[in-house]
Design brief:
single chain, alpha/beta, three-stranded antiparallel beta sheet, 10 helices, 15 strands
């Protein structure tokens, strides 16, 4: 009972944004501020977060900005496999958007030898990876900073992206729910990702197979918002069939 569904979702949100306010969480989850304080107290006692006046923040949140390391570092072999597949669709003279995330970061690491490429990103760690390459025209969006994902988010970021155009978007997701919705822990990211999709000719969803069947807090829309889905070779036949039935093009090679 210690970690009921609401508390799990609160923890996911704080792990994504780095912090949260009691008043904000009360509105999101439709419960009283007293209930939210009890939830945060329990998460604090379990060692996941640290309480502060009016809210809470992720423990060691400052270390992400100092080290440039992302919070989520799981299944890295699969993410590197996806990155190798993704770069096959990136060509000189392309204008691409790289969403924030650990998989898209692995894609960025494979772009260092490109000579004429425009990359738009809301991820500060990706900007630092690519910034040393004079052959890459780098465009970084503004917005609110999220330390665990080293990303810029919110309406300001979305508004900047709306003024741009890209050939290809490499879109990340926290989960693909059982009814094949793209889900995310944070509401602030939805407007950014929607702007990325609207500004791009083609959308490549890049997510490891463990994300299939996982539901995070907020839904962006159906998986078919993407034109293509690039995943790893660990995807099961059952998962593969379900994704194919949705109508999305799956790229496994």
């Amino acid at each position: 009972m210690a970690l009921n569904q609401r508390r799990i979702k609160i923890l996911e949100l704080i792990r994504e944004d780095g912090h949260a306010k009691v008043q904000q969480l009360s509105k999101i989850f439709g419960v009283t501020e007293v209930t939210i304080r009890q939830d945060l107290e329990m998460l604090d006692q379990l060692g996941y977060i640290q309480r502060e006046h009016g809210g809470a923040f992720l423990k060691d949140v400052g270390s992400f900005a100092k080290t440039g390391k992302l919070f989520n570092q799981t299944r890295m072999d699969e993410k590197r496999e996806i990155a190798r597949k993704a770069v096959a669709f990136i060509h000189e003279n392309d204008i691409i958007i790289l969403d924030s995330g650990s998989t898209t970061t692995e894609i960025a690491k494979l772009l260092l030898n490109y000579k004429n490429l425009t990359v738009i990103t809301n991820a500060l760690n990706i900007a630092l990876i690519l910034g040393e390459n004079p052959g890459i025209n780098l465009v970084v969006t503004g917005g609110e900073f999220k330390a665990p994902t080293l990303s810029l988010t919110g309406q300001m970021s979305a508004d900047i992206i709306k003024t741009l155009h890209a050939n290809k978007l490499f879109l990340a997701t926290a989960g693909i729910s059982a009814d094949l919705q793209l889900t995310y822990p944070s509401l602030s990211d939805l407007v950014v990702k929607q702007s990325m999709i609207e500004s791009s000719d083609q959308v490549f969803l890049v997510a490891d197979s463990s994300k299939i069947g996982v539901s995070a807090f907020a839904s962006l829309g159906p998986v078919t918002l993407a034109n293509f889905f690039i995943t790893d070779s660990m995807i099961t036949e059952e998962q593969l069939e379900k994704m194919k039935e949705s109508g999305i093009n799956i790229l496994l090679e």
